[in-house]
Write a structure and sequence with these properties.
heterotrimer; A mainly alpha (278); B alpha+beta (187); C mainly alpha (437); A: 278 residues; mainly alpha; Cytochrome Bc1 Complex, Chain D, domain 2; two-stranded antiparallel sheet; 9 helices; 43% helix; B: 187 residues; alpha+beta; Rieske Iron-sulfur Protein; four-stranded antiparallel β-sheet; 3 helices; 24% helix
């Protein structure tokens, strides 16, 4: 038995060593995402509505020029703490295509709460043509669709520390990770921007999108690049997973129920088996 | 099996029974709680509910005596502008002429400050079995259901046929002189 | 099989009960199968996974039926309809995450169930058919899981389907026609998605059917137990209810608690981020890896990098991969040992744990790029995998000197409690109560 334990331990160490090497083996991203403190981290973490509102402002005034957010409807903004009237007024700033009318023509009308955020380009081809061949992806699911591989042993440890913020950490790191100084062993093609946090190469077509003081926030939050990157990352986590608060609240009740039920079942089981040697 | 008579008499069986009952009740509560989301998912979803928001109708396009059909929550509604003689014909009908009497005036409306109320907004779903009645200009008869022959008057009250109740009124409100909101009684 | 003496104790007490019993004795069948049915008294928690698996089959079918009410199997709408479920359908996110993580935990439970069977020799005579039916369930599960993974129509769905159906092109002449038959086209597309949806809905009910056969076969031979000794007298067993039911229920709830933790707190941990990108037939993801439960087989597939005579490396990989599953079917005849349980086989026990670690290691290799040192490691690991079945099992049974096996389950239980110094003052009661049942 002792023998077995020793062997198990040796195997575990061997696997760990090889896996650590494996992280270095996968080429991109060059730098791991930097972990941030998120209000929605952990089993009791919830979205910070003020942060999401700032994130919406940044999306609406910056990102939306190139990036669609087509899975979010204006009605969803109620989650951010806006009233129906505020949502109606906000939606009316956007025009959406509707129709056909009685003459068979398509027409534009102000958006309503039931409409989705209109996309900046009618299709992928138009988006590429306007952006030098690069397609600015839809951001609705970005925080779940971009999650660099964690590798061993991180992926074993993550469930125990409830780390599920790989996506927003990545977005934050990318937005704040542009570097002017390019290392000598890296070549950056013309028209691209060096960013060691980018998941699929050394450089990307998006220029650094955030600048100091480009926004003014009603709640007095300082518009540093770091603050804005964090806000917009949190906002994109919400667009990707709008039911997270509800999920964790329900989860807490389910876990409490299951633990009490398990305890009762254990006592019952002990009682039932108490007179049988087994 | 677990025969209680083998146990010494006393507190033990009580405590044991309590554990069994508590465990069983937990199980029952859990099963009921799990059933809810499986039922809940069949109710109209958020997108359907959002698409069922109140609609705005431009009344200026409807001529006197004309009827249009609008859709709210995927169901049709009649909007009819009555002529004076049609209102008069509806008014002459009394309690003996129909199954479910309400005064015609209660089913006619109009925007604030209008000279006369002459708008009828009623469901276009027959209260018998759900067909859409045909509009007829045969005062006092206003609608005729082709499925089973129910006849409604100019303001949607059931006159004869298998339908038992009047065409229901949706919530609506006149936002201004020529704009009607169907689906909400608040502007 | 003296344990069958317990059957036939059902006596309906009400008039309705008697009336039904005379016409269709379903209550009697249920009573005999799940109440009076005798199980060895020494079953440990490793024996609870059968019950857990049946609950997970129910969870998957129920949540799956719900998802099918909202899902659209159309290449242009599938991804959107899944997002519609996640965002707009009431409790839709819960149904989807339960189904998605349920698949992972279904496989986790089935692997523990299979390892338990290997460890305690559950496949040995007279339970060969029981074992083979289990292997069939496992195969059906793999097919179901694979087709289910395609349905959300994300990048991994699409490219997973492309790669897996590409296996068939390894076969000369007939390979490409078979692939086109499976896909309903020259590449993965709308027809593929539609047939996968249809089959993904059908297969779980076939699994349920085979599960009934599996349980039937089980109830004919009775459970094995950690000692591997057949039941010899009534003192060896306890009635299924309440003894096994309460133990299974406790294990189930503990297992469900772990499952719930993932559903509610880490729902995407076991999945792959690329599947939140809509399928794009023009762009292949950087790393295509299957879900974790297929990784060991994926590693075996890629381990064959050399031609074997007329067999190309590609075909060799496919043969090795299918062979790694096929070998499970003949396990009852590969093991030559007269002793059933690993408890009394010190060498088999050691090799068993090497096999378990090797399987996990193969899984990890499957997630790594097939290049450099990983290829050599995968080849070594594949050799160990097949070596366990094809060399260790037949040879060890002939050369290994097993420890002394007790005469009966009861004796083993008593020996153990005496060995642990606990004594057995209550033994008389236990025997009596077991006898009464």
């Amino acid at each position: 038995m002792k023998n077995l334990v020793v062997k198990l331990g040796a195997a575990a160490i061997a696997v760990t060593v090889m896996a650590t090497g494996a992280w270095a083996a996968s080429a991109y991203p060059k730098n791991k995402p930097r972990e941030q403190d998120w209000s929605f981290a952990g089993p009791f973490g919830m979205y910070d509505q003020a942060q999401l509102q700032r994130g919406l402002k940044i999306y609406a005034e910056n990102c939306s020029a190139c990036h669609a957010l087509s899975r979010i409807n204006f009605r969803n903004l109620a989650d951010l703490g806006y009233s129906d009237d505020q949502i109606k007024a906000f939606a009316a700033n956007y025009e959406v295509e509707d129709g056909p009318d009685d003459f068979g023509d398509m027409f534009f009308r102000p958006a309503t709460a039931a409409d989705a955020f209109p996309s900046p380009f009618p299709n992928q081809e138009a988006a590429r043509a306007a952006n030098g061949g690069a397609y600015p992806p839809d951001l609705s699911l970005m925080a779940k669709a971009r999650a660099p591989i964690r590798g061993f042993p991180a992926f074993v440890i993550d469930p125990f520390r409830n780390y599920a913020e790989n996506g927003p950490d990545y977005i934050y790191s990318l937005l704040t990770g542009y570097k002017d100084e390019v290392p000598e062993d890296v070549s950056v093609p013309e028209g691209l921007w060096y960013n060691p946090y980018f998941a699929s190469g050394t450089a990307l077509a998006m220029a650094p999108p955030l600048f100091e003081d480009m926004h003014e926030f009603d709640d007095g939050t300082e518009a540093t690049v770091s603050n804005m990157a964090k806000d917009v990352s949190a906002f994109l986590m919400w667009t990707a997973e709008p039911h997270m608060d509800e999920r964790k609240q329900l989860g807490f009740r389910v876990m409490v129920f299951l633990l009490i039920f398990a305890a009762l079942l254990y006592l019952s089981k002990k009682q039932v088996w108490s007179r049988v040697e087994h | 099996m677990t025969d209680a008579t083998q146990e010494p008499e006393g507190e033990l069986p009580t405590r044991r029974d309590f554990i069994y009952v508590a465990t069983g009740m937990m199980g029952a509560v859990g099963a009921a709680a799990v059933a809810w989301p499986f039922i809940d998912q069949m109710r109209p979803d958020a997108a359907v509910r959002a698409a069922g928001l109140p609609i705005e109708v431009d009344l200026s396009a409807i001529e006197p005596g004309g009827t249009i059909v609008v859709t709210w929550r995927s169901k049709p509604y009649f909007i009819r502008q009555l002529l004076d003689d049609e209102i008069a014909a509806a008014d002459t009908l009394g309690e003996g002429d129909m199954k479910e009497y309400v005064p015609a005036a209660e089913r006619i409306a109009g925007p604030d400050g209008a000279d006369t109320n002459n708008w009828v907004i009623v469901s276009a779903t027959c209260t018998h079995l759900g067909c859409v009645p045909n509009t007829v200009d045969n005062a006092p008869e206003g609608w005729f259901c082709p499925c089973h022959g129910s006849v409604f008057d100019m303001v949607g009250r059931i006159l004869r046929g298998p339908a038992a109740t009047n065409l229901p009124l949706p919530p609506y409100v006149f936002a201004d002189e020529s704009t009607l909101i169907v689906g909400s009684d608040q502007v | 099989m003296s344990k069958l003496e317990h059957h036939g104790t059902y006596t309906p007490t009400t008039g309705v009960g008697k009336w039904i019993d005379a016409r269709m004795p379903l209550p009697r069948l249920m009573y005999d199968s799940f109440v009076a049915y005798p199980v060895p008294r020494n079953l440990n928690y490793a024996y609870t996974f059968g019950g857990i698996l049946s609950i997970f089959l129910v969870i998957q079918i129920l949540t799956g039926v719900v998802l099918a009410m909202h899902y659209v199997p159309d290449a242009t709408k599938a991804f959107d309809s899944v997002e519609h479920i996640m965002r707009d359908v009431n409790s839709g996110w819960l149904m989807r995450y339960m189904h998605q993580n349920g698949a992972h935990f279904f496989f986790l439970a089935v692997y523990l169930h299979i390892f338990r069977g290997l460890y305690y020799g559950s496949y040995k005579a007279p339970r060969e058919l029981l074992w083979i039916l289990g292997c069939i369930i496992y195969l059906l599960m793999m097919a179901t899981a694979f087709m289910g993974y395609v349905l959300p129509w994300g990048q991994m769905s699409f490219w997973g389907a492309t790669v897996i159906t590409g296996f068939f092109t390894a076969f000369p002449v007939i390979g490409v026609p078979i692939q086109e038959l499976l896909l309903g086209g020259f590449a993965v597309g709308d027809p593929t998605l539609n047939r996968f949806f249809s089959l993904h809905y059908l297969l779980p009910f076939m699994i349920a059917g085979v599960v009934i056969l599996h349980v039937w076969a089980l109830h004919v031979t009775g459970q094995t137990n950690p000692t591997g000794i057949e039941v010899k007298s009534k003192t060896d067993t306890v009635p299924f209810t309440p003894y096994a039911t309460i133990k299974d229920a406790f294990a189930l709830i503990v297992f469900l608690a772990v499952y719930a933790y993932f559903v509610f707190y880490m729902p995407n941990f076991l999945g792959h981020a690329d599947n939140y990108i809509p399928a794009d037939p023009m762009v292949t993801p950087a790393h295509i890896v299957p879900e974790w439960y297929f990784l060991p087989f994926y590693a075996i597939l890629r381990a064959i990098t050399f031609d074997i005579g007329p067999i190309s490396a590609k075909l060799g990989g496919v043969i090795a991969m299918f062979g790694s599953i096929a070998v499970l079917f003949i396990v009852p005849w590969l093991d030559t040992s007269k002793v059933r349980s690993a408890v009394y086989r010190p060498w088999f026990k050691l090799f068993f744990w090497v096999f378990v670690i090797n399987s996990v290691f193969l899984g990890w290799l499957g997630s790594q790029p097939a290049e450099g040192v990983y290829v050599a490691l995968a080849q070594l690991s594949t050799a160990i995998y097949f070596g366990f079945f094809l060399v260790v099992m037949p040879v060890l049974g002939l050369v290994e000197k097993p420890r002394r096996v007790p005469n009966s389950i009861t004796e083993a239980v008593l020996e153990r409690s005496a060995g642990s110094g606990g004594g057995s003052p209550q033994l008389g009661d236990a025997t009596a109560s077991a006898d009464k049942s």
